[in-house]
Amino acid sequence: MIKTSELKKLVSKIFIKHGLSKTDAVISSNALINAELVGAYGHGLSRLKMYCDRIKKKVINPKPKIRIKKISQSISHIDANNSIGFVAADIAIKTAIQKAKKTGIGMVAVKNSGHYGLSGYYAEQAVKKNLITMIYTNAPPAVAPHGALKSLFGTNPICFGTPTGSNVPFILDTSISMINRGKIRVAARNNQKIPEGVALDKFGRPTTDAKKALEGVQLPIAGFRGSGLAWMVDILSGVLTGGNHAGKVKDPFDDFSGPQNIGHLFITFKTNLFVNNFNSRIKNNIKTIKKLPKIKGIKEIMYPGQNKYKRFKMNSKKEINITNSIKEDLKILNN
């Protein structure tokens, strides 16, 4: 067990040791620890070594010269210069927020970036500024397009956030696969089984073996519909932005042949673009749905983000429990 503040300092120190500036190290550390606090362990400290390995292999640029091209008052295009994804995404969401506050809507595309952690982490920043947001990013091949034998799409998360009129934001952050790849990696590392019905091995057979799943194919949500959503995200975050797409995003853990060149798209807009009473309308919307009759065993109808918010509040009050394998990573990376 370790205090959150101490863990953030340790992770920042590790990132600085690997060449990041103090500012960029803090940004990256905050994003990783946030994943631990909300219970998204597959996007937390289990990835720290991967980021450091990619910096060592010179496929993440620790001292990037990030360029922001202004397209209009509402639109910008960012070349992240192969920076660690946290830093590029931090600049992008802040730029999108600033533009939305000024003009009503902000759209920021990013190319030449890397894995940036949880999309919901950035969505929450916009929602706290009373903005609605949609965020897209693509990922390395993991899911086969519907009808194909080979994986090509990433788990390509779809993220949507909105203010709710309360301090608990509505944040839908979901991969288009039955289970996110980070969870499979954590299971493989800890020799744990994965649920049935989420992956196939390299021979196309259903498997609960996490290591075989990583060698095979993950299954999309809702069959061809999930495949279509993955394709949509690949277009929005890859084709549109200038990032890699169509299966060309490199696996961050296994492929050090070059930068990932992941693309991100951040869209933010004001809640009062069309109505002046959004807050009362969203409160009524949530209240109506929560009052619906509940099936047996359900105490409350929850909206996306509620459980994560509860975990964050609960975990923020106690020390973080880290596994032995992550303790070993921290020890090695800090020496």
What does the radius of gyration come to? Answer: 20 Å
Distance between the termini: 20 Å
Instruction: Tell me the helix content.
Output: 25-40%
Q: What order do the SSEs take from the amino end to the carboxyl end, as H and E?
A: HHHEEHEHEEEHEHEHEHHH
Overall average pLDDT:
95
* DSSP, total strands: 9
Dominant shape: globular
Low-confidence stretches: none
Q: Report the biggest beta sheet as strand number plus sense, adding barrel if it closes.
A: 7 strands, mixed
Sequence of strands across the biggest β-sheet: 1-2-3-9-4-5-6
The quaternary structure here is single chain
Helix count from the secondary structure assignment: 11
How much of the polypeptide forms β-strand, as a percent range? Answer: 5-15%
* Structural class category: alpha+beta
Comma- or semicolon-separated keywords:
alpha+beta; 11 helices; two-stranded antiparallel sheet; 14% strand; globular; 7-stranded mixed sheet; 9 strands; 335 residues
Protein model, in words:
With 335 residues, the protein is of the alpha+beta class. Helices cover 39% and strands 14% of the residues. The chain is built from 11 helices and 9 strands. The strands form 2 sheets. A 7-stranded mixed beta sheet has the order 1-2-3-9-4-5-6, sandwiched between helices. A two-stranded antiparallel ribbon has the order 7-8. Helix 2 packs across helix 4. The longest helix is centred in the first third of the chain and has 19 residues, at 85-103. The chain is globular. The mean pLDDT is 95.
